[in-house]
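Q: I have two molecules that I believe assemble together. Could you output structure tokens for the complex as a whole instead of separate predictions?
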Amino acid sequence: MAPPDIRQVVLDILERIAPDEDLSDLDDSSPFREQMELDSMDFLDIVMELRKQYRIQIPEDEYEQLISMDSTVNYLIPKLADTPAAV
Amino acid sequence: MLDALNDPHRIVITGVGLAAPNGNDLSEFRQSLLGGRSGVVNFETRYIGKVLAGVCNFDEFRYQKRKERRRGTRAGSISIYCANEAVRDSGLDWDNVRRDRVGVYLGITEHGNVETENEIYEISQFDYDTTCWSHHHNPRTVANNPAGEVTLNLRITGPHLTLGAACAAGNAGFIQAAQMLRLNEVDIAVAGGVSESIHTFGIFASFASQGALAVHDDPTKACRPFDADRCGIVVAEGGAICTLERLPDALARNASIYGEIVGHAMNSDASDFVLPNASRQVECMRLALARADMQPEDMDIVSSHATATEQGDIEESRALQAVFAEHPDVAVNNTKSFIGHAMGAAGALEMLGNVPAFEDGIAHATINLDHPDPCCAFPQLVANEPRPLERAECILNNSFGMLGINSVLIVRKFPAEHGGLYA
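A: Yes, here they are, computed for all two components at once.
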């Protein structure tokens, strides 16, 4: 999966977690929590969705990698390298 | 002295919010009950497929964000809708209400089955990998969830409780609230009962295994309490929540008063897990009447609990005959014939659907009573068509549940000259 596809995967998850928010202006370099209401339970939803959809197990000590869109995509690139993008 | 307007032990209903399968507010609900409009429809449930159910269609997002709904439960969502409607209806200056003096007391039949079934189904899609079990499961399934969601939504910082009372729970919510108001634990109670039960396949499957689940070609004809052709229980969802206040507080703010809770009682059969007990039901009704300092002939409407099971209908008929046989003018009706059994919400919905009789003077019917069961036949039963009443000032509401839990609530019209809503 290419980085733009991974970004879309993460964006889709965020839209499900925060359905009241407009994410069209999301700044990929800034932390999610500075741009949207995202508490610890919401954050765990990101981890859970990646686990369910792509069988990615993210250790707790690596959660900090999911702080922003850029860091999340970079973290997921090797984990999703062999996963085809959804058509 | 009992009737003194400054008596803080007198508890009144000052706001109403409800979601029924045939109405999203009291006015709609009442029109459906008087017009014979059922809320029972075909419904798809997991594993079983097509069942019959009372399904609500209120707007979940009128008072709740999509994110809040996603985090919470259907019971929480029903509670939030009804509680907001009640608060709005009450005319309370909510922005200036002391939220630490508000309590939330909601009756439930069960809670947590829906979410547990959902999660088990979900992990079944992942070869039962329990790491896919949601972190939302615990906050969604704690027993206080529906009442707790109301406090989060309405920023209420006083106490909140759910009352687990099987199908006697709707009355139990009101009773708990009245007691907490009398103890001065709170100044305003947001109270009633709620049910999300149609979203758990287990309740349908269990009633089916018990031989007690209704099956009928015409959903609107399926729920037939007191009828010889009864075919069992129709499960429903819904909620009914009131704001309750001490009478002097309500009068001081010129609240519109729907009615006064003048009597209540709860007791236990102590005889069977599921089978009802007419003797204990009689005791419960008589205890509520005694506490109200009233006689059976003072009642104008008796809202029956009957669920359209043979044993339940017959036992309650025996109990009603024991208390009311000498009083032909009382009107006995049944709301479940319209909407099915709304479980934790049933008692609250059934009481509130009758309250507008204080104004229109009509007892709504028990529909689907085409061939009255001779074992349940009594002249006071309002069959199929609404009945105009000579007097409509007092309602006795029965609600009974599994494990032999009984609750009775008596609500009396409040005089219009003192702030009563109904002329």
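A: One point stands out. DSSP finds 14 helices and 15 strands in chain B.
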